[in-house]
Amino acid sequence: MEYKDIKEIVKDMGESKIDELKIEFPDGTKISMKKNDQKVVYKAEPEVHEVVIPQTSTVSTIVNANSENKVEENYKEIKAPMVGTFYSKSSPTAKPFVSVGDKVKKGDVVCIIEAMKLMNEIESEFDGEIVEICKKDEDMCEYGECLFKIK
Known about the structure:
10 strands; CATH 2.40.50.100; alpha+beta
């Protein structure tokens, strides 16, 4: 089959209402064509309902939300360096590596993450005080997920 014949088939396909075409010629040449599906999506505008809120409660809510966000930004996070199972202690009967309020130094072991049957000790990247432990024993953790918050 010649190039000009194939080009003509493609042109005819584009001008027709056919969405898909498969042809097999006696010489073994096979042609399969499919047009791109173009779907039109209509977006409905959401209904707007007016709600009247007293000015004082709105202001206090905004102030509280902003102050909480500022406090969150001051914390440093120890994040999971891998996917695995979180353990706060070395064995079921041992005491946890750290608790809320404990002071840690850079390099202190804060937990273990089990990945592929290997126990990986996770060390603190910062000096500071543990403010929050974001995982519980045997929780699954994802790469980059916050494990501890330190101030």
